[in-house]
Amino acid sequence: MKEHMPRREDDSLDILEFKRKIRALKEEERAHKKTAHFMKTSFSPELNEENLTGEDMAIWEKLQAKTLSLPEFEAYRARVRKEGNTDRQIFVAFIANKMVDVLYGDETRTLDL
């Protein structure tokens, strides 16, 4: 199966660096216990960053650059869902949560729920 990779502007991050970055985020999450994006929970296994792909890396880079569009994210999520790789699905959920921060920033922090 050919992997779909959005076109990247540059090669600023290679796949090994990307996986190291995600591993570091996972370790930070474990140490601080403020979030559970990558950690094992009652409904999700722990993320194995080794199963992430170049497509995941490209989506991460677009999110970091604030250039990831909602239609592009939806297409990516549909491809990952169809593939069925649990680690990639965990990463999709992480990206979705981060997109809310990027799109709405402080507005989400002011909700009184």
What does this structure look like?
With about 110 residues, the chain is mostly helical. The protein has one domain (about 15-105). About 55% of the residues lie in helices and about 0% in strands. It contains four helices and no strands. Helix 3 (about 70-85) runs antiparallel to helix 4 (about 85-105). The chain starts with 14 loop residues before the first helix and ends in a 9-residue tail after the last helix. The model is unreliable at about 1-10 and about 110-113 (pLDDT under 50).
- Morphology call: globular
Strand tally: 0
The ordered H/E elements are HHHH
Rg:
14 Å
Uncertain residue ranges: 1-9, 108-113
The computed structural class is mainly alpha
Helix count equals: 4
Oligomer: single chain
How much strand? under 5%
What is the residue-averaged pLDDT?
80
Could you give a short account of the major beta sheet?
A: none
Helix share bin: 40-55%
Provide the domain count.
1
- Termini separation (Å)? 44 Å
